[in-house]
Amino acid sequence: MTAKLLEVNNLHTSFKTEDGVVPSVGGVSFTVGRGETLAIVGESGSGKSVTSLSIMGLVGSPGKVTAGEIRLEGKDLLQLSKREMRKYRGNVISMIFQEPMSSLNPVFTVGNQIREVIQQHRRMSKQEAKARSIEMLDRVGIPGAAKVAGYFPHQLSGGMRQRVMIAMALACQPKLLIADEPTTALDVTIQAQILKLIGQLSKEENTGIILITHDLGVVAEMADRVVVMYAGEVVEEANVFDLFEKPGHPYTIGLLASLPKLNEQRERLDSIPGTVPNLLRMPGGCPFHPRCPYAQEQCTKVHPDLREKASGHQVRCLRMEEVSP
Ligand SMILES: Nc1ncnc2c1ncn2[C@@H]1O[C@H](COP(=O)(O)OP(=O)(O)OP(=O)(O)O)[C@@H](O)[C@H]1O
Fold it and tell me: Per the database record, which ranges form the ABC transporter domain (predicted)?
């Protein structure tokens, strides 16, 4: 059997702070296949971004990956030198961030910035790389790509800047694309266009995608499989249909209840009471128990393992058998 495109095994990433060591990611495992879209969902602070930065090799001091494996086509990225990792980034693995303005350089034209990425990783003349950058701008649906290549980032709208970021991220045909809240900063119609574009380009190139979002509507639209994170751990993993139809973790059920449904008029949406725990002062037992309507005494004492609910569907809950949506 050939290795999965990406295998993350028991990843631990923590930050040293004045108050103590923050265990942001505490033993996360998942896989992404070629051409597959895996969504990682969870409230703010659940560890989604730190997981993706760990994969990119971009966790900076005071953060550190302290244990685990991140295998891309079988090769453990955590064993690569900084120099080797730079060859992977932007090339084999790319990332699209929420706010393109913070990733684009304001003093260079967008065409130059895409060309630079291409030339960093491919043996191409300046002319060839320039042509490729215009071709990429065209592919992401930017009208008048040759002209726009000469624009500076501030001359473009938010949606156009995000298209430029996608063009840049895909210019070297990465095998894995990490999209961290790629559309949160955009208005709803542009969001839909950008998501469609990412989906379409990944299908054409068989790119694996990790989509990080707290928007379950986006998950339903885009994902093949879903990982739900809570307090730095995976609490549920399932294919997108099972997750929506037969959620097994009370936290997932809470997230789904906060999703507006079509043809349903409600005064206000349900949200999960309470907040994500402070990782420095985690409650004993199951980290979700203080907010969980199913919690019993055992939940305050025993930390649950992931268990199989059905084939390909895992849940980290002691009371999984009693939980129903
Ligand atoms: N530089 C840092 N120093 C200390 N703690 C950090 C740092 N970066 C992240 N953390 C902590 O790691 C935890 C996980 O953060 P992360 O950004 O991965 O969450 P997230 O699920 O992506 O949230 P969001 O949706 O808000 O981006 C948080 O408790 C956060 O406070």
Answer: 6-256
